[in-house]
Amino acid sequence: MKDKEIFYFHPISVKGVNFRNPFYISSGPTTKNIKQFIKAEECGWGGASIKLVIDPAPYINREPRYGWFSNTGIFAFTAEKRLTPDEGLRLVEDARKKTSELIIFANITYAGEKSIEEGWGELAKRFESAGSHIIELNMCCPNMSFNVELSGEAHTDSPKTGASLGQDAEAVSYITKVVKEMVSIPVFVKLTPEGGKIAQVAKACIDAGADAVSGTANRLAIPPFDIYHPGKAPYALQEEISLSCFSGEWVKPLALRDTYEMRKLLGKEPIIAATGGIRSFRDVVEMALMGANLFGICTETIISGYGFLGNLIEDLKFYLEEMGYSSLEEIRGQIVEKLKSAEELTIFEGHAQIKDTTISAPCVTSCLNFVPAQGYVMAVSKRDFREAYDLIVSAGPFQSICGYVCHHPCESVCIRGDIDEPIKIREVKRFVLEYARKNNWKPEITTASKKSDKVAVIGSGPAGLSSAYYLAVAGYDVTVFEAEDKPGGMLKYAIPRFRLPLDIIGYEIDMIKELGVEIITGKRFLKDFTIPQLKEQGYKAIIIAVG
User: Fold this and answer.
1) Which of 18, 30, 160, 533 could pair with 165 in a Cys bridge, judged by C-beta atoms 3.0 to 4.6 Å apart?
2) Fold of domain 362-439
3) How many CB atoms within 10 Å of residue 318?
4) Rounded to an integer, what distance in angstroms lies between the CA atom of residue 101 and that of residue 158?
5) What is the DSSP letter of 72?
6) pLDDT grade, residue 155 (50/70/90)?
């Protein structure tokens, strides 16, 4: 656990409600019970918004099915389980009793037939009485009536909620005005980007008295699906494919735009909370540059837990100090006036020159053998060890040996070192290859059609055996001649055993033999045979690799 002092960073006050820092957990699966709120306070969060409360109980209220698509940074879910008003009120009451510094948002929506005052207003008053610090009006959720509206199924005559309601500036601003008049605590309005009018609706809300506005981290979309089994759900325990709520790092560029558009129209003073794709201090800086005051994070708490906030704040403090800023306020909105439309851009004549032609990860381009390090490290992170093994051995022979003796230039350029320390790439490789040996995995090597030509290789060190490997893969009949009693050359006779065990050398040589390479030992070049003699024996090419 971080020193608690780190959590008192850039405190912010909204209408008398004081956040110890500008980071809060957005409404979602990590804010639906009291244990989560206690943990959120322990880990330093400035606030937390309770899981959405709908009154009356919603027509979509089922245990969600989650999907994490790590290759695209997409976190998705279908259906949704909300809190009833009574559940939400108990959660707020318990959270106020068991936390002391956490700002509690009541994230609410009304879906009944009562008037705005009797529906939205009375619901907000109940949550104020329960101890909420802030009322957050949900005008954004894409999985409420907007989901049904798009899918064209039942309930289309039900009152609009979420993203369906949130596109109607007149309706949203009136609800905001009524609620603001009926409660004494701050009112936030969480808005949808659907319809392309988030800034206009935000302005209507601010004009109606809202104390802050925010975007949302969710977008309704079609989830990845199996083209060989179209219609089959990508989620376990769900049969049909369905529209899903998408969030995660991929949404950040869209969330940046939402924040920019609201700040551009609202001016400098109104409070804007940015949500969507925030995972690191860089994301926070980008959102602040677009004009954000507060930062809502949900998906990353699902993926990484609550405890990453301390590191994020430390990294952010370091950045501000490095850049000569004393606070986030100094950078807030810097980009807003600098962002230009296409017609305003300064475009120079001519062609850009490519400065850096490297398009692979630094760990790959620094590797003398171009082993796809970023690929197998990612595979190991997903516990897909077979995939990691296949990627490693695809780069050629002696990978196990490299796992012991390589000087690992990949680690010196690993970009993880910019954050804390480089990944131990060589150790990861060694682990994978040792795991493969224990499981008797063999590389899947595709060889070319067999050729009639024979090739002789003189010397069985790394150069000679590598030549033999690639020639065999190319389909040639290869014979290696070695002066010593055992093959391996410098691998065997120069590197000490505490650095490179003999069985590892033997393991790699055996894999080369399995390609059809013949190794003849105890035959010294120029003493036991000559090049003319090899040619007389039918060898069409001869490689001298004597070290």
Assistant:
1) 160
2) Fumarate Reductase Iron-sulfur Protein; Chain B, domain 2 (1.10.1060)
3) 11
4) 39
5) T
6) very low
